[in-house]
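Trying the structure run again after the queue cleared.
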Amino acid sequence: MDPGMDTFPANLQAAGVEPFWGVKVEGGALAYTTPETMDAPRRLQATRSIDADGLHLSGEERGQPFRLDVRHGPCSDGMSDTAYPFSVSWLLEGKTAKGCAFDPASPPPPQ
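Done. C-alpha cells:
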C-alpha cells in the first residue's frame, strides 16, 4: 500500500450544492447521486491514487472520464455551519463541481 494512503479514509461521503450532488466512496467504488437519483445511484469503479495534491479517484464510464479529487483542509458547504475536514472537486461528463467530504465513521459534529 502507498505510504500516503492511510492519510485518507477508505470510505468518504462527498457532497456539493448548486447543483446538489453526492458521491459515496467505498474503496474504489463510487455511488453518485443527485436529488433525482437518490434511489438509484450511478455506480462507478475508480482507481485510487495519492500525490502531493491529495487523493484522486478516477476512471472512465462509457468513454467519459470522471474524477473525484479530495484534499485535506477545512471546507464549508455554504449552507450550514458544519466544518468538513476535506474539500473535493468532482468531474463528470465534462462538468466540474466543488464540494466537501468527511469520513462517515467520524462525521463532523453539528454546529
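Residues 28 and 94 are 21 Å apart (CA to CA). Worth checking whether this holds up in the mutant runs.
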